Queue: 4 jobs
Job 1
Amino acid sequence: MATPMTAAQYEAQLKKWGLSAKAYRSNWKTHNRTKATGKTFGGVNGVMLHHTGSDADNPALLYNGYSSLPGPLCHAGNDSKGLIWHIGWGYANHAGSGDQDVLNAVIAENYGANPPTDNQTNADGNKRFYGMEVMYSGSHGMTKAQYNTMIRWAAAICDFHGWTAKSVIGHGEWQPGKWDPGYAPGRMMDMNAVRNDIQDLLDKGPNSTPEKPVNDVVKPAPESKNFKEVWKTDSATPPAGHATKANPYWAPISILRGAYEKAEAAYKTAQEILKIVKEIRERM
């Protein structure tokens, strides 16, 4: 694990990599959750990428958070124009508890295309990861400016610590039930392709530009075990014998399965009705 950058080192690193940034509030360098929680940021092991779940450019929300989850909700916000917002520095509420197996793979940087399946919540990600929130819903691709800023930001941090792109993961690879950063409802981007773009930047250095941003040709992530199991689960509540504790793959998003099946049935019924109406009209 590594000692986190100071705020001054972080600013210098962004400048080195040609990234523009703006402070949401002047006290961002001391805005963190350490005093409230007694927890400190670091040692650090990697970078985690998120989406906010809304297309609004709203750094205020990232700074303040919610009553149930106080801010800062990340270290960096990334708005629709690709501008970085300084939100906080130190221990932030962005990653939550995730899978220790994933953390071990990130530390060793020895996994294949993707880290192990995230099916546990036994490690504190707020302590171990730098976090960026990209300000978009995740139900569609982010803007090209956002994508280029995101991968350059991740490369800048990896460059400082001497990490490869395998130290960068998506929130959906860390915490069961999450799917950010997404490209469609419930679908995470192909993080292996994202890491390839980050590594390309690292190999070429801070003066390079992305050669082929994955966001230009949206590539879906391979279906994970998590996604398949969630999709197969009954929609409203876990079925008998499959409580959340027993079945870590169940999540509220599985309600989409029930909605999809109902919509599909309604569509087929409507098609049948239209077919009958057409036959009647042809006979008149």
Job 2
Amino acid sequence: MLIVLSYAVVTDDHVRVDFLSEKLPVRCVALIEFLLISVLVIPLLVFMTETLVQYAWNSFVKGESSMAPDGLPYRFILKSIIPFSILLLMLSLVSRLIKDIALVLGKPKK
């Protein structure tokens, strides 16, 4: 889901509150989006990444595997996908921040 969310942010298909953004100018929407992403979302994702990297590392060190006889032998691989997908999301949000800065500064949207 996080990997798909990264794609949605890059392609501008993510969910937003349209009834507010329809009434505000494009520059104002870009400024609000910039502030919310940089003040709320990025710090939260950094905190999540720090926590989840430790979670995946502990699984790797313990050699954790599934309890089921035919289960996944290397569970840390799945646990490593979570912080990796959050890093992809942060990268896509940085791309969105650059687009918002361009809109606020008056550069045309391509």
Job 3
Amino acid sequence: MKFAAIDIGSNAIRLLFSNVSEVEGQVHFKKSSLIRVPLRLGDDAFVNKNISEAKIEKLIKTLTAFKLLIDVNEPLAFRACATSAMREADNGAEIIELIKHQTGIQIEIIDGKTEADLVFSNRSDENLENSVPYLYIDVGGGSTELTLLYNSEVIAAKSFNIGTIRILHKQITEHKWNDLDKWINLHTKGIKDIVAIGSGGNINKINKLAKKKLVKPLSIDQLVEINAILSRYSFEERISILGLNPDRADVIVPAAKIYIHIMKTANIQNIIVPQIGVADGIVHQLYDEYINR
């Protein structure tokens, strides 16, 4: 079985094809291909509250190409979701209609809670210990989603308008950081030995820079050390020396800042990086709907 998902984020647009197989009662999700186009819709949406004509044109071209690939791959189902940049753009609804007319793709603009639910629905918790508390942390360009899992149950979940592109544009006030801290302190009070689960392209890249294997925990000390190294390099040096793409080289430092801030506030010592995201969550939900129809 093959499913497809489109994630229209604040930093990049992603198309994921994933194969799903059922073997001896176990369901296995295997990424077939992932295409990523760095459009940076957040640069327009967060600063001007409006997505420019130039970005709209590129978005439509990207989605036209994605639709052709979907038609060729013939997945059982596909879904397209847009997150914080499209949520905040005053012309977001207008763009959705234009995309529907020109590409045939119906895009859902999802709220922060739905975004957190999609990340959480990846079910990476199936390989985790029930007795261990986990905090899912998904850092994007426009928002950060947190989901606290304890005794195999979701204790609390919330989306915060704290993201890498917002930090680059100096849009995160002290009040927003305080709201984040209050939520963490309230819901983690009395819970010890929390382990973080990180999602998003930046933590994936940080994990690779640390040369850690997938799912093996990355410690807060290692994260702080890598952030210090990244911060010492200029934007150009992160590209030329560390081999980062330009659209990753500027946001990776604010991303590390967010992860470190959350982990320190929640007194978390380790973070697992299973390489999951919104697109993966969409695929999981499509599979669930397919088998339960």
Job 4
Amino acid sequence: MTDAAMHIGELAERTGLSLRTLRHYDEIGLVTPSGRTDGGFRLYTADDEARVMLIRRMKPLGYSLDQMRELLDLINLVNANPRDPELDARLESVRQEALERRDRLRIQLAAAEEFVAQLHARSTKA
């Protein structure tokens, strides 16, 4: 563990997630701290922070915790085996699915924007 390790509070602040969420991720094995202090406090590294940020980016796309774990495991495998065509194909499939999820989210956002615009138009007429 290096001097760059951070406690859970700093990780929470840097990622915008609550302490409760980070503890839950630890309990279910989604994000395991890289170490612990002598007193048992969780210590996280920049790699742990990057993993949490990947999770944050998956959440709006509607991935379940189990799906997130599978995707993170796949990313780890790809990083460990960068020239494996089977893993590349699996990652490409995930990328395509993420694009589809993003497009559905854009449609939902457009509908929400229209709704807000209609409410705004009605409130300015009053």
